[in-house]
Amino acid sequence: MKNNKTILIMIDAVRPDYITQEYTPFLYDFSQKNTFLKLETLLGYSSGIHPSIYSGYYQDKTEKFVVFNYDPENSIFKWTKWLRLIPTAFLRKFFIAVCKVPYYYFPKKYRRFLPRFFRESIIKVPPSIPLEILPYFNMGSVKKRIRTIYDYFKENDISYTSVATARNEFFEDVQELDKLALTDALVDSFYIYEPDGYGHHYGANSQEIKEIMSKIDTKISELYTEAYHKYEHVDIFMFSDHGMYNVEKFLDIQTPLKVAGLQQPRDYIAFFDTTFARFWPKNDEIEKKIIQILEEIDGVRYLDDTLLKRYHLDFKDKQKFGKIMASVEWWIRQFPDYFSPVKNTIKWLHGTFPEYEWSYGVFMTNAFTVDDECMKVVNIMPSILKVMWLEHTLHADIDGKPVF
After folding, report:
1. What is the rounded average pLDDT for all residues in the chain?
2. Distance (Å, whole) CA 377 – CA 350
3. Phi and psi at residue 210, in whole multiples of 5°?
4. Cis before residue 126, ω within 30 degrees of 0?
5. Is residue 324 a contact partner of residue 292, using CB atoms and an 8 Å limit?
6. pLDDT tens, 258-308?
7. What does the DSSP assignment read for 53-101?
8. Which residues pair with 162 in a beta bridge?
9. Letter string b/e over residues 192-205, b meaning 16 or more CB atoms within 10 A of that residue's CB
10. What is the DSSP letter of 22?
């Protein structure tokens, strides 16, 4: 029998109420006998939350936040300026849609052989963004290197694997759910994407969610049972990144701006995410006008300096992510936005204020016990490293702390 095994499993978009005796008997039994905490997420999306989980820093330090940032100089979409030669907006968008077809009809394992132009530009065009706005934006947050849990492993000669069921920057390999397996490494790290996709499409209370959670429960039970019989000591950490909530109301933020006589790109540039609205006004007068409009819309919260600091979104480079930012409340979806041309395609969402009940994720482990009922996402990595006797290697400026 081998000595020690550490298993890390992030399951995307799992809420505490997903863990039930009927559909997830292993996880339910585990939660009753071990540490089970609500996980307080961040105001934002997985593109910012995942770096915070694996680094222990908040988003204002990782500078990882949203997928699209303001960067006209380096935009991968500069080529779309030529689309103005196509006479109507409908035909321009139709052209983009036709260009995407080869990518989706290619088998996934061969898509990497398609021209880079398809993989890294055409396929990334949001379906509802005005094409005259697109060249102002680039993909990905600021290219800042952050120190993650895997760096700590490397620096301390700890062998590890990282496997996901969907592409993720923190995982080296991609496998289907039923093919996830333990290795001889000291640490096996997994990312299971499916509950997020199923939740958006079918809803958090759907039968499809219950069924995929049942499959996930079976797989985790298999991994844990195998490790339990093979190793003298097994530490397992299971956590999500956020919860998910039902869309009860749609809210149009763009129309009040137009009614006030403001136009893109003459007066401002904006990116309308599903829950965020981010603006780059052309002058101070327009900035004040946009803020006034946002503050008058019921269901929208303008993120002033106090709120930006509270939610760790007070970025040094405000030009990258938005000189003005606002978020809708938790039961609302912004529509129209830049991602979905059809109103009811996304039934459930995440990405708004973390204090609301359905925004919480979960954290479970057999490695330690605590009296608290809740922990923050930035505390995950420091807590894992403390269990592995690596707490002394943590950087002094890290935001997260071990919870035990």
Report:
1. 91
2. 15
3. -60, -40
4. no
5. no
6. 999 999 999 999 999 999 999 999 999 999 999 999 999 999 999 999 999
7. HHHS--HHHHT---SEEE-TTT-TTGGGGGGGGSSSHHHHHHHHHHHHH
8. 189
9. bbbbbebbbebbbe
10. T
Q: Report d(CA 278, CA 270) in Å as an integer.
A: 5
Q: How many CB atoms lie within 10 A of CB 299?
A: 14
Nearest alpha-carbon partner for 359 in 307, 397, 318, 311: 311
Residues 106, 114 contacting (CB under 8 angstroms): yes
Q: Which of 249, 240, 192, 185 is nearest to 220 (CA)?
A: 192
Asked if 371 and 403 touch (Cβ cutoff 8 Å), the reply is: no
Q: Which residue has the tokens 């395609």?
A: 345
Tell me the two tokens of residue 68: 């699209």
- Three-state DSSP at 350 gives coil
- In this structure, the strands spanning 324-328 and 276-281 are antiparallel
Domains of the chain: 2-64+146-245+353-393 (3.40.720.10)
Which residue in 255, 258, 280, 392 sits closest to 337, CA to CA? 255
The DSSP letter of residue 178 is: G
- Cis preceding linkage at 16, omega within 30: no
Question: What are the tens digits of pLDDT across the range 144-161?
Answer: 678 999 999 999 999 999
* Residues pairing with 324 in the sheet: 279
H or E, element range at 306: helix 305-310
Angle at 344 between CA 341 and CA 349, to 5 degrees: 100
First to last CA, the chain: 29
Q: What is the pLDDT of residues 76-112, one digit of tens each?
A: 888 888 877 888 777 777 777 777 777 667 776 666 6
49 burial (CB, 10 Å; 0-12 / 13-18 / 19+) is buried
Selected residue with higher pLDDT from 251 and 167 = 251
Helix residue spans in 149-304 (DSSP H):
149-155, 194-202, 207-230, 254-259, 284-296
Q: Measured between alpha carbons, how far is 404 from 394 in angstroms, rounded to an integer? A: 15
What pTM does this model have?
Answer: 0.91
Please determine, for residue 30, whether its predicted confidence score (pLDDT) is greater than 60. yes
In this structure, the number of other CB atoms found within 10 A of the CB of residue 325 comes to 24
User: Is residue 338 scored above 50 in pLDDT?
Assistant: yes
Measured over the CA atoms of residue 324, residue 329, residue 330 and residue 332, the dihedral's sign is negative
